[in-house]
Amino acid sequence: MSKLPLCAFAAAALVSLAACGPTVKPDQVMASVLPGMTENEVYKRIGPPDREYVANGRDCFGYDLGNYGNVPFAVYFDNSHKVAGTVRGECKGRRR
Q1: pLDDT averaged over every residue in the chain
Q2: How do strand 71-77 and strand 58-65 relate by DSSP bridges?
């Protein structure tokens, strides 16, 4: 008997279970961004921003989180390109 049908069934079952896994909430994602992290560390932790802004000469990464990208978060950086803080909302400033 071929093992192919059994392997295909097992793979389909695993994919189905993965789709039922818990969805990470936007607040949990942003809680992983800590003051003092570098821009590269933020990229590695939560991915590239949806938009980038400059506010008062400082960078701000804008993220659209949530199931439908409907929860905006902003990550503000200081002059040394380290996280100064995060805000649930849009970045202020001009878009790059």
Answers
A1: 83
A2: antiparallel
